[in-house]
Amino acid sequence: MPVPGPLVSTQWLADHLGGENLVVLDATVLSVEGGGHVAGDEEYLVHGHVPGAYSADLIEQFSDPEAPFSFTRPSRERFERVAGEHGISNETTVVVYDTAFGAWASRLWWLLRSFGHDDVAVLDGGLTRWRLEGRELETGYVAPVARTFVAEERAGFWADKRDVDEVAAGIRAGALVCAVPAKEFSGEAPVRRRAGHIPGSVSVPARSLIDPETRRLLDPAVLAERLGPVASDEPVILYCAAGIAATAGALALTVLGRTNISVYDGSLNEWAADPDAALTFS
After folding, report:
1. Of 144, 166, 269, 249, which is closest to residue 203 (Cα–Cα)?
2. Residues 101, 75 contacting (CB under 8 angstroms)
3. What helix, strand, coil percent values describe the chain, rounded to 5?
4. Domain over 158-271 is classified CATH 3.40.250.10
5. Model's pTM, two decimal places?
């Protein structure tokens, strides 16, 4: 059965586990001291995962590790190969989750859709919700059964620095949405040499869209309120530090029925590295 929408419940996944055409991906990435990240291998292997789930590495596999900025989306050819190695074909139903607040899962969800795969959903609440409900966990490695995936790069999913610059300058219509924490947006808690946000942006932190206890996406009515500044029909470009948290906002907007959404892949890591690119605290 195809996924019913961009989100699936833990009950939906439990009901469909073991299906021949279902692939479940654990997209966990862990933060380490100093601001770096490591793949969630230990979390997956030792602490448990959804039974039958494959481990998906967003640092080395589902990104371009040779790009100048972390988590840059991979080429079509690389994505085809890695997706196939993880058991994904063009006919596969995919459910993605993580152990954090869902942004890693939504990143992989967005990547799959941008490369032409629509039958993919994020597990609402991720592994946190799965555990809270006392559902079965499995430890150890699950080896994927390789398949063939043929990617189709779709326009409109990604924005580049020029797109963002034109919206910020008022040359083209659109809204800029920053998904970093509020104090990072304001410059109170800088994490880069150049602090602040892109001029004209509105602040919608990714975590403000998630229930902190269950890790589920907030109800649509609450999401609409939180996303009120970008609730019109104008195009929306979302960004964060590295194009990860921004996809959580893209997921929320998709749940609300919005389609004219793109994610700035380089995000602030690229923007702030350019000394001529304006940043503001207002």
Report:
1. 249
2. no
3. 30, 15, 55
4. yes
5. 0.96
Domain spans of the chain? 7-132, 158-271
Question: CB of 203 within 8 A of CB of 197?
Answer: yes
- Domain spanning 7-132, CATH architecture: 3-Layer(aba) Sandwich (3.40)
Q: Which residue has the tokens 């995936």?
A: 149
Q: Within 13 Å of residue 37, how many CA atoms lie on the same side as its CB?
A: 17
* Residues 6 or more apart whose Cβ sits within 8 Å of residue 273: 69
Distance, CA of 195 to CA of 104 (rounded, Å): 24
pLDDT tens readout for residues 173-227: 999 999 999 999 998 888 888 899 999 999 999 999 999 999 999 999 999 999 9
* Per-residue tokens: 178: 């920053």
With H, G, I as helix, E, B as strand and everything else as coil, classify residue 26: strand
